[in-house]
Amino acid sequence: MKHWFSDGAFRAILRNAAYLGSGSVVSALLGLLALSCAGKGMTPALFGALVVIQAYAKAVSDFIKFQTWQFVVQFGTPALEKQDTKRFRNVISFSFGLDIASGLVAVLGGMALLPFLSHALGLEGKNFWLALLYCTLIPSMTAATPTGILRVFDRFDLIAIQQATKPFLQAAGSVISYYYNLGFTGFVITWYAANLFGGTLFWWFAARELRAKNIHNALKPQLFKAARNIDGAWNFVWTTNFAHTIWAARNSCSTVLVGLVLGPAPAGLFKIAMTFFDATGTPAKLMEKSFYPEIMRLDPRTTKPWLLGLRSALLAGGIGIAVALLVILVGKPLISFIFGYKYLEAYDLIQIMLGAIIVSMVGFPQESLLFMAGKQRAFLVAQTIASGSYIVLLVAMSHLFGVQGAAFAYFGGQCLDVLLSLVPTLSAYRNRYLLGFNVPRESNQ
Question: How many Cβ atoms sit within 10 Å of the Cβ of residue 253?
Answer without folding.
Answer: 22
